[in-house]
Design a protein that fits this description.
One of its GO terms (biological process) is thiamine biosynthetic process. Pathway: Cofactor biosynthesis; thiamine diphosphate biosynthesis. One of its GO terms (molecular function) is thiamine-phosphate diphosphorylase activity. This is Thiazole tautomerase TenI. Keywords: Thiamine biosynthesis. β6, α6 and β7 form a beta-alpha-beta unit. Strands 1-2-3-4-5-6-7-8 form an eight-stranded parallel barrel, surrounded by six helices. It has a single domain, classed as Alpha-Beta Barrel (TIM Barrel). It is 40% helix and 18% strand. α1 runs parallel beside α2. With 200 residues, the chain is of the alpha/beta class. 44% of the residues are buried. The chain starts with a strand and ends with a helix.
């Protein structure tokens, strides 16, 4: 699959079965599917991995948020960390086969994570988004600064739509991450093809 990265993140509202149903339709166009379910137990997350596998999603496209134990045991490709997660450098040393990403919200955080040898970072939120009500977006200027300062891929997240993707990519993003843009689309397959065309 050519072009920039497209990450799709579970939204914590719909069931993981529903997430898997959509993933099964769109996965040829998607770089990674993130199971981001803060309230779920390790056992429930493992069931979510099974749902994705049943829909034909390869383990190489599945990422578990925060729970490195689940990522390692289920043999998925990656783990995505938050500020409260285990140390990224320790995870890289212990599980060298995992692709490790991390969410950051400033240039300082991004530089710190690059030093810890993470493989990519999510930076955002770029625009106002329903998942973070009342918080203004961080905008494109710092995104552009971060993409110039770091060598690793910077994945933009937060309020990104077809209508504003070009300006995000012009700012230097290596890809985008979406939730509602695909999970709540009337026709996820048609929509993901539109995303992928712009990401080429």
């Amino acid at each position: 699959m050519s072009g920039r990265e497209l990450h799709v993140i579970s939204n914590g509202k719909s069931s993981l079965q529903h997430f898997a149903d959509i993933a099964g339709q769109i996965h040829p166009y998607v770089t990674a599917f993130h199971i981001r379910e803060k309230q779920m137990s390790a056992k429930e997350l493992m069931v979510g991995v099974s749902f994705l596998k049943e829909k034909g999603i390869p383990l190489s496209k599945i990422v578990i948020n925060d729970r490195v134990d689940v990522a390692a045991i289920s043999r998925v490709s990656g783990v995505h960390l938050a500020s409260h997660s285990l140390d990224a450098e320790l995870i890289k040393q212990t599980f060298p086969y995992l692709r490790v990403g991390c969410s950051v919200h400033s240039l300082k955080e991004a530089l710190s994570m690059e030093q810890k040898q993470v493989d990519y970072v999510f930076y955002g939120h770029i625009y106002e988004t329903a998942s973070k009500p009342g918080l203004p977006g961080r905008g494109l200027n710092e995104l552009a600064t971060i993409t110039q300062k770091l060598q690793i891929p910077i994945i933009a997240i937060g309020g990104i739509k077809i209508s504003n993707m070009n300006e995000v990519l012009t700012a230097g993003a290596s890809g985008i991450a979406v939730m509602s843009g695909l999970l709540e689309a009337e026709n996820p397959l048609e929509e993901v093809i539109r995303y992928r065309q712009l990401l080429k």
